[in-house]
Amino acid sequence: MSSQPSPSLPLPSLTLTGFLTLLLIAFMMGANHVAARTAFNHGVDVVTAVTFRSTVTALVVALILWQQKVVLQVNSRQRKFLLLIGGLIAVQSVCLYSSVARLPVALALLAFNTYPLATALWARLLYGHRPERAVLLAMPVLFLGLALALDVLGAASGLGAAQQWGQIGVGVAFALAASATFGLALVLTQHEAADVDGRLRTFTTMGTVAVLALVVVLTQTGLHLPTASAGWWGLGLLTFLYGTAFTIMFTVLPKLGVVGNSAIMNVEPVFALVLAWALLGQSIAMMQLAGALLVVATVMWLGLRKR
Fold this sequence. Notes:
Elements: H1 16-40, H2 46-67, H3 76-100, H4 105-112, H5 115-127, H6 133-150, H7 161-192, H8 198-221, H9 229-251, H10 253-256, H11 268-280, H12 286-304
Keywords: Membrane, Transmembrane, Transmembrane helix
Transmembrane segments: 46-66, 81-100, 106-127, 134-156, 168-188, 200-218, 230-251, 263-280, 286-304
Protein name: EamA family transporter
């Protein structure tokens, strides 16, 4: 979650370096979820993955805060909301990885990428903001694309609606729960913590997630470590990719002036689709691919439209 530019100021033009950096972040985020699925296939559970990922990322951002001498100052209201936002991201992380563990990676990410709709809903409910016309127009298109991608009627799989939902229902529910909690976290960040330095917000968020995950690990499940070398590779890569992507997002992107163009990173499911096909043998039907591209294109249009 990064600071948004003032709506009264024009967005900086997107340089080639900025564009390639955004694509790199999207690639790493997509690869992170493919690595997570590999880890899940070899003994790692969701809480263990979240614990490793968040703890290492929090430590890296803490080093950045120290190296760049960032002032660690927030008021009492911001402190409360930063903790709440961290709790929401913890729930989002568990839900999204739980979806990735049950669905083809790209489909889990596509369902999660409906979060712009969740964001508009929470802004309306909590702060009385009327959804923009563009969001209202995008809603049916997003839902159509998602329905095609998930093959909700079971046409592509030949299973029929009932059997299809028996297979994908839980995974879709987790992805939509991740979308809802992430949307709420974005709205609270914008309205309650926008003045907090983005690096400090990232540290408090990842630190809160790490602490909550460690509490669960120590009091309930314990660490579920990989049972094969492929699982260790998956766990190591998901931690490295996630931490590196977030570090770039909050230290490099603001300097490049491309925050307003961050919707380009929503090509993440496309990267995940290719990587999951190449590395995990996951594939989807042409109808599902068309739906996936429709979702990605709509989300990018929402993010890149002129306001």
